Amino acid sequence: MAYWKAAGLTYNRYLAVAARAVRRSLKEGPRLTAERRGQMDLRFAKWENGKQGDVKSLGEANQEAMAASAESK
């Protein structure tokens, strides 16, 4: 079994955590460039009963989900 599954992560969340760890391990110049590249500008909205919900930033929603996941452990 994959360790990310055993830890209760989705594959996308696992990749986000791994990418963040790699970016943070770089020296100052390359780290700043990589952090800018890693910023997300994607937005999404949940649809229920044919109506669009609030539009959220994917990056912010991912951070909130990761924080909620960390608190529940």
TrEMBL record:
- Quote the InterPro entries the UniProt record gives: ATP_synth_F1_esu_mt, ATP_synth_F1_esu_sf_mt
Q: Which GO terms describe its biological process?
A: proton motive force-driven mitochondrial ATP synthesis
Q: Which domain of life is it from?
A: Eukaryota
Record's GO cellular component, any one? proton-transporting ATP synthase complex
Segments of this protein annotated with the region Disordered: 53-73
Please give the Pfam families that the UniProt record associates with this protein: ATP-synt_Eps
Query: What transmembrane ranges does the database entry give?
Result: none
> Molecular function terms in GO for this entry?
proton-transporting ATP synthase activity, rotational mechanism
Gene3D superfamilies linked to this entry: ATP synthase, F1 complex, epsilon subunit superfamily, mitochondrial
Family, according to the entry, reads as follows: Belongs to the eukaryotic ATPase epsilon family.
Q: What is this protein called?
A: Mitochondrial ATP synthase epsilon chain domain-containing protein
Specify the taxonomic lineage.
Eukaryota, Fungi, Dikarya, Ascomycota, Pezizomycotina
